[in-house]
């Protein structure tokens, strides 16, 4: 596939790809050349391989395309990823932080973590799979070496903001960032999504976070929003 690749003007280690038909896509530099994770296309440009980043499969990619102003996850960062599932977005985070960074992947579903281990972590030395429930961060504290630079949370639980805040209390460096992908229907199907977002924001504010952005993820994800905040 013929394509042109250039660095994203705002975000380190994220790239913009122009395909043959002039369509624009996001991408990350592939930490494991010739291997993909979820069927994404691989692009070679000037001797470097990139993975196209599908916003319909990744809420972080969707938020970037919906004009997120800040992506706190950067090269060499240590990231705690709550709800890593089978590793779609977590693998792109792994590409971004690179060999000097690390992604601690907490996932409770045994099938998902099996896929994460076999398809992703086995080939990426900067990822650690952790089979635990994100509601009980003290259970996996021993697996993290020191505090992390960012916490990214994408869990299907009723108290998403509380779970995230409990983890940041234990693991996040001071004055650092969190990203919370709010799944409104996992919290309360009877309420309007906008009401749910406000409620989760209030939980974060009550726990000392300063909210900097709230991005609605339609049309990529219905009834989802990305919240960016700093402690």
Feature tags:
231 residues; single chain; alpha/beta; 7-stranded mixed β-sheet; Phosphorylase Kinase, domain 1; Rossmann fold
Strand residues, percent: 25-35%
The whole-angstrom Rg is 17 Å
| Structural classification | alpha/beta
- Please identify the oligomeric state: single chain
Strand arrangement within the widest β-sheet reads 8-7-6-9-10-12-11
Count of distinct strands: 12
Topology-level CATH name of the largest domain: Rossmann fold
**pLDDT below 50 for ≥5 consecutive residues: which ranges?**
none
**Biggest sheet record:** 7 strands, mixed
State the share of residues found in helices, binned by percent: 25-40%
CATH class of the largest domain: Alpha Beta
User: What value does the average pLDDT take?
Assistant: 95
Shape: globular
CATH architecture level-2 label of the largest domain: 3-Layer(aba) Sandwich
Description:
This protein is an alpha/beta fold and 231 residues long. It has six helices and twelve strands. The protein folds into two domains: 3-53, 2-Layer Sandwich (Phosphorylase Kinase, domain 1), CATH 3.30.200.20; 61-230, 3-Layer(aba) Sandwich (Rossmann fold). 25% of the residues lie in helices and 32% in strands. It has a seven-stranded mixed sheet. It has a five-stranded antiparallel sheet with strand order 1-2-3-5-4. Strand 6 (78-82), helix 2 (88-97) and strand 7 form a beta-alpha-beta unit. Helix 4 (160-171) runs parallel beside helix 6 (193-206). It is globular and about 50 Å long.
């Amino acid at each position: 596939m013929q394509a042109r690749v250039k660095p994203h003007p705002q975000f380190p280690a994220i790239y913009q790809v122009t395909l043959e038909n002039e369509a624009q896509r996001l991408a990350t530099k592939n930490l494991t050349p010739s291997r993909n994770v979820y069927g994404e296309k691989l692009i070679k440009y000037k001797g470097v391989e990139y993975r196209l980043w599908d916003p319909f499969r990744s809420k972080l990619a969707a938020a970037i395309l919906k004009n997120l102003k800040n992506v706190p996850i950067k090269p060499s960062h240590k990231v705690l990823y709550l709800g890593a599932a089978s590793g779609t977005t977590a693998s792109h985070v792994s590409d971004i932080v690179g060999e000097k960074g690390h992604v601690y992947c907490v996932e409770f579903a045994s099938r998902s973590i099996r896929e994460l281990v076999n398809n992703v972590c086995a080939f990426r030395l900067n990822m650690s799979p952790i089979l635990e429930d994100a509601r009980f961060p003290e259970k996996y504290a021993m697996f993290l070496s020191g505090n992390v630079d960012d916490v990214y949370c994408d869990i299907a639980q009723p108290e998403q903001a509380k779970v995230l805040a409990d983890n940041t209390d234990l693991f996040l460096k001071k004055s650092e960032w969190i990203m919370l992908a709010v799944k409104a229907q996992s919290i309360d199907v009877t309420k309007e999504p906008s009401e749910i977002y406000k409620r989760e924001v209030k939980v974060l504010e009550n726990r000392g976070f300063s909210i900097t952005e709230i991005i609605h993820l339609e049309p990529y994800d219905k009834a989802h929003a990305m919240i960016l905040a700093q402690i």
